[in-house]
Amino acid sequence: MSKPFRMALTRIVIALRRVRDWTIAAVVLSLLKLISLLPAHKAIPLVDRLARRIGPLTSRHKLAMYNLARAFPEKSEAEHTQIATDMWGNMSRLAAEYVFLDQIFDFDPESDEHGTIEVEGAEIFLKLRDSDKPFIVFTAHTGNFELLPIAAAAFGLDVMALFRPPNNPYIAKKVLAARRTSMGHLVPSRAGAAFTLARRLESGGGVGLLVDQKFHKGAKTSFFGLEAHTNPLLAKLLRQYECDVYPARAIRLPGGRHRLVVEPAVEIPRKPDGSVDITATSQMLNDKVESWVREYPGQWQWFHDRWQIKHLLK
C-alpha cells in the first residue's frame, strides 16, 4: 500500500468518524432540546423510564453486567440486572438534569428548609470558604455528581474541577458550555492539566477531582477486590502541596431529590520518612469510593471500563 493511498484512506476514516460523531450529537442534543419543552418533574421521570428499556439493549449493558458479576459474585443475576437497570435510569436522569439545572438546584445556604437539594456537611463548605489554605475535594461518578461544584459555588467557594470531556467532540463542546455557566473553573483532563491544578493549590485555592476513572498507567490497586490501575494525580499533588483532602458525593433520593455529602478530611497514608505514600493513598481513594458504590450500587456507572476488561468481551 503506497503512502499517498494510506494518507487518503486515513483522511476518509477521519471524515467518516466526524460524520458519525456529528450525527450522534445531533440526535442527542435534539432529544435534550425536545425534553426541555416539558416541565422538569415530567421530563426527568420520562427519560428514566425510556432509558430503563433502551439501556439493556445496548452493547454497554453487556460490560455493565460483566462488571457487576465480578464485583458482586454473591448477588444473583436478577440482582445484577436490577442494579444495571437502575444505573441506566440514573444516567438518563443525569443527562436530562443538565437541561433543568436552574430549576433543580434550589439549595439556599441561608435557609434551614430542604427543597430538591439538601447538603450534609455544610459547615465544612463554610470552613473552607473562610480559610486561605489550599484543599482538595474528591468524588466519584455517583448520583448527580455534577451538583457538587454548583453547591460549592452556592456557598461562595471557588473550586477548580478537573473533568474528562466526552469522546464525542460536538457533545463535549455543548457539555463544557453548560458546565461553565454554573460550575466555576473547569480544567479538561489533558496534557498540562496537572500543572494548572498545582498552580491553583500553590495560590491557596481548592481543587476538585473525580477519582474513579480508568487509568492505563499508575498505581496498582484493587477495587471490589479486583486489580485496577488508579490515577496517582491526587497523591502526587499532595507530595507537592500539603493540604487537607475531603471526600464528597451525591446521592439520589426518592421523589427526584438529591443529598450532597461533604465528609471530614481523611488521613493520608505516609511512608516512614513522612512522605505521601502514593500507592496507599490511591488505595484509600478506591476504598472510599467502593464504600459509596456498595451503599447505592445503582447510582454508579457500571458500563465504565474501570478494570480495563472491555476487550475480553469482543
TrEMBL record:
Species the sequence originates in: Hoeflea ulvae
InterPro entries from the UniProt entry: LipA_acyltrans
A single GO molecular function term of this UniProt record: acyltransferase activity
Keyword tags: Acyltransferase, Cell inner membrane, Cell membrane, Membrane, Transferase
Listed name of the protein: Lipid A biosynthesis lauroyl acyltransferase
Subcellular location: Cell inner membrane
Predominant location category: membrane
Family matches, as Pfam families: Lip_A_acyltrans
